[in-house]
Amino acid sequence: MTRLFAVIALICCGAIEAHAQAPSGNESTIASFDPGQPVAPISGVEGNGWKVGEGTVLLPVIGLETGVINNVFYENNGPATSGVLRIMAQIGMGSLTNARLRTGANPDAVTPEGEEAPQGDFEYRTDLRLSYDQMLSGNDAVSGTGGLGVGASLKGTVNPAGTWAFGFSDEFRRLIRAANFETDANTNRDLNNLALRVKYQPQTSKFSGQLYYLNTVDLFERGNQDFADRMLNRIGLRPAFRWLPQTQFFVDVSQGFQGGLGSASMKASSYPFTALGGVATLLTAKTSLNLQAGYTNGFYSAGPSYGSVTAGASFGYRYSPLGRAVLTYDLAYEDSVNANFYRDHVIRLWVHQLFAPFELSVQPEVHFRRYEGTIIPGVGGATTRDDVIFSLVAGMQYNFRNWLAATVNYHLTAVGTSFSYMTDGIVDDPGFVRHELLVGMRAAL
């Protein structure tokens, strides 16, 4: 069992959670084509699709990538290197796309902000994404770490232009993760995220708001790893007030209830409460600023808990008509797979530049993370773990057409930690450095 705890700690808390948060105020990040997230939406290419109804279109995308992965097993010493071949496919269905609208009967149906006008009382998009990794190695342990990744999402809005609107989204991901030398199988994981929102958005008032519910189910596929299974729930209220055309103040108050899922789970129950306020504004036509701060408390039923300030800031600068940079800082407290929780100081820079027909995105980030109440104790009985996590994700895309592109993606993850544990009489350091370099093609049909 100690080995399994260690694997969960290494794979989930070192590699997966390094990209848990998106940059504040900017959801369209390089993570959408992160090599470590092959079942994320295939970005950058989207054709007209196949129209199958009055307001519905099918959007298929295929991709092929190959490259090399250094440190397949996330080891601190003696990393194994392997080539990889990845086949990707995505099929989407939803309301008419931008391309279809532009070539339709009403190509000028846009709002003053440049967004397409609502096309009815119901807008939606659903996608199914598949990726299959084949490790190109003569080592049986390495070649057995590939497999089928699955991603599926459904997003929609009822009455999108009305005073009252209802929004929903659901995203499922099957993540294929190589374990390390201490176990004989992948640490594969199923994650489902559900969000429901009731929105109040009158056109003639400065006041707006939303009531939301968030649910996350986190399951490990192997039966002897189900001690880490968990469910997270949160309900919240977010009123907002618009002052001047480009400035909005908001308050967000939420209550969570979360804990283990299934009789084998060892997760402590908690009831996290968060209350914060903030402002989002344009300082100039080229610069934006988002600030938020408040209080959060974990209210864990057993083990350590937290009660502290939470804060975030985001500064965006459009330095050219085809380039934008966003710098963010977040102080956050999150429930953890291998501990009660972790505290994270996150500094992230995201830069996107278009040099037609080239498109470049770079995202370096550093996390100063502390885990409290680790499930597996460290050497000397330690239950606190301090990590410094550095990640660099970079991608370049050459667009032959709007539906065909060549891609180059690079992903570096480096985890340094003060934590070590004992397994089979050997002290193991769960820190690691991992490189991924992939090149490929993507085409929309």
Question: How is this structure best described in words?
Answer:
There is one protein chain. The chain is mainly beta. Helix content is 5%, strand content 57%. It has three helices and 21 strands. The strands form two sheets. The protein has an 18-stranded antiparallel β-barrel. A two-stranded antiparallel sheet has the order 19-20. Strand 15 and strand 16 form a beta hairpin. The longest helix has 14 residues, at 2-15. The protein is globular. Residues 1-36 and 99-118 have low confidence and may be disordered.
Strand pairing plus helix content: what structural class?
A: mainly beta
Number of helices: 3
Gyration radius, rounded: 23 Å
**Range of strand content:** over 45%
Instruction: Summarize the biggest pleated sheet.
Output: 18 strands, antiparallel, barrel
What is the topology?
Elements: H1 2-15, E1 50-51, E2 56-70, E3 81-95, H2 98-102, E4 122-136, H3 140-143, E5 147-158, E6 164-175, E7 189-200, E8 207-220, E9 230-242, E10 247-260, E11 273-282, E12 287-297, E13 307-320, E14 323-335, E15 341-355, E16 358-372, E17 384-401, E18 404-417, E19 421-423, E20 426-428, E21 432-444
Antiparallel strand pairs: 1-2, 2-3, 2-21, 3-4, 4-5, 5-6, 6-7, 7-8, 8-9, 9-10, 10-11, 11-12, 12-13, 13-14, 14-15, 15-16, 16-17, 17-18, 18-21, 19-20
